Amino acid sequence: VAEVNGNAVPTGSAYAAAIKGINPGDTVNFKVKRGTEVVGIAITAGTIMRPTQEIQPDPNATSAQLRLRDIWLYRGKKGWQPR
Fold this sequence. Notes:
Elements lengths: L2 E2 L2 E2 L3 H8 L7 E8 L2 E8 L18 H12 L9
Antiparallel strand pairs: 1-2, 1-3, 3-4
């Protein structure tokens, strides 16, 4: 990618800055270089759908299960000590 909406993007950080303010539904114009050819491409920005999962505590969990949960969730967190 050489340009985003007319702005040169010579680095990854320049590219990230160029696309930061793009919203779903915006038309984005790219100039892409392939070999010696430069091609202009216009796209309509969309959204990313990411499935989510939620962990629910089990009110009937044993102390061993709670300990395993705590190790899995909190290991490596500053100040955490195992039960």
